[in-house]
């Protein structure tokens, strides 16, 4: 079983800033507090519409954090140019719809293999580690291998939205996908919609390398402070591994 890492997604610190067009709260400040509290990495999603994170955040974070920056991006020429300029540690390629409230599904790697393979190659040539954000689906995992990305991030959104028997079924899909991906040599991350009450079954999956968690941590920080919110989440994750 590998060590389990926590990537803290700070998109919604920026959501609060953009709501009023102020210069606070500052995402860099949030990233540094998260690192002090035990975050192993910082994740941001630069959306096409710049609804939360904006370009300067990505540049500043890459210059200031001391863990690893995970840059979530749609597979567009605009985002590829930014990634190749910033050179984050990781790029996670995600699907994006302008009108969506949040990321709705995984990237269809199998359905656009040439495009994704070429993006992976360009990022790898710049020494950026690429992760593909996919649904827990064997055909998509096979396509990731064909695309040449070393990491996947399994979309846990459906698991997070369901309950009871349906959630148990989703958990099983994620467990099977993690096992299959790992047998193919991929490093397995997961994320989306994870919170303090649903994280442990996902954290307990032995193949998991990193969980990326944002909304729930930022929401809890309103009441308990960001340091405690990150530390509590990390503790829950590590507890699930014992
Ligand atoms: C790709 C993914 O699952 C999320 O991390 C993504 O960042 C969601 O975007 P929002 O933060 O805009 O909801
Ligand atoms: N890739 C998932 C992520 O970064 C965080 O998603 P969420 O916890 O904000 O739903």
UniProtKB/TrEMBL annotation:
Family matches, as SUPFAM superfamilies: Pyridoxine 5'-phosphate synthase
Reaction(s) catalysed (UniProt annotation)? 3-amino-2-oxopropyl phosphate + 1-deoxy-D-xylulose 5-phosphate = pyridoxine 5'-phosphate + phosphate + 2 H2O + H(+)
Q: Under the GO molecular function aspect, what terms does this record hold? A: pyridoxine 5'-phosphate synthase activity
Pfam families registered for this protein in UniProt: PdxJ
What Gene3D superfamilies would the database entry show?
Aldolase class I
Q: State the compartments where it is located.
A: Cytoplasm
Q: Keyword Cytoplasm, does the record have it? A: yes
Kindly list the residues the record flags as site (Transition state stabilizer).
Answer: 153
**Binding-site residues for 3-amino-2-oxopropyl phosphate, renumbered to this chain:** 9, 20, 193, 214-215
* Pathway(s) it belongs to: Cofactor biosynthesis; pyridoxine 5'-phosphate biosynthesis; pyridoxine 5'-phosphate from D-erythrose 4-phosphate: step 5/5
Record-listed E.C. numbers: 2.6.99.2
User: Is Cytoplasm set as a keyword in this record?
Assistant: yes
Which InterPro entries does UniProt cross-reference here?
Answer: Aldolase_TIM (IPR013785), PyrdxlP_synth_PdxJ (IPR004569), Pyridoxine-5'_phos_synth (IPR036130)
Question: Where 1-deoxy-D-xylulose 5-phosphate is bound, by residue?
Answer: 11-12, 47, 52, 102
Q: Which family does it belong to?
A: Belongs to the PNP synthase family.
- Kindly state the subunit structure of this protein: Homooctamer; tetramer of dimers.
What biological function has been recorded for the protein in this entry? Catalyzes the complicated ring closure reaction between the two acyclic compounds 1-deoxy-D-xylulose-5-phosphate (DXP) and 3-amino-2-oxopropyl phosphate (1-amino-acetone-3-phosphate or AAP) to form pyridoxine 5'-phosphate (PNP) and inorganic phosphate.
Under what name is this protein listed? Pyridoxine 5'-phosphate synthase
Q: Gene symbol?
A: pdxJ
């Amino acid at each position: 079983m590998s060590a389990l890492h926590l990537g803290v997604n700070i998109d919604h610190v920026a959501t609060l800033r953009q709501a009023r067009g102020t210069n606070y709260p500052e995402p860099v400040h949030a990233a540094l507090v998260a690192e002090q509290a035990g975050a192993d990495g910082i994740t941001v999603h630069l959306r096409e519409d710049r609804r939360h994170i904006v370009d300067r955040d990505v540049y500043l974070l890459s210059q200031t954090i001391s863990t690893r920056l995970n840059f979530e991006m749609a597979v567009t020429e605009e985002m590829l140019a930014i990634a190749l300029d910033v050179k984050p540690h990781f790029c996670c390629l995600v699907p994006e719809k302008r009108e969506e409230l949040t990321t709705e599904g995984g990237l269809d790697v199998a359905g656009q293999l040439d495009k994704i393979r070429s993006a992976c190659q360009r990022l790898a040539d710049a020494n950026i580690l690429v992760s593909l954000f996919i649904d827990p689906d064997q055909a998509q995992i096979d396509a990731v291998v064909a695309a040449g990305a070393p990491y996947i991030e399994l979309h846990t959104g459906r698991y997070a939205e369901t309950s009871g028997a349906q959630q148990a079924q989703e958990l099983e899909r994620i467990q099977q996908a993690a096992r299959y991906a790992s047998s193919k040599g991929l490093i397995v991350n997961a994320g989306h919609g994870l919170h303090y009450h649903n994280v442990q079954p996902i954290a307990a999956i032995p193949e998991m390398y990193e969980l990326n968690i944002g909304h729930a941590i930022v929401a809890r920080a309103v009441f308990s402070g960001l340091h405690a919110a990150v530390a509590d989440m990390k503790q829950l994750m590590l507890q699930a591994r014992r």
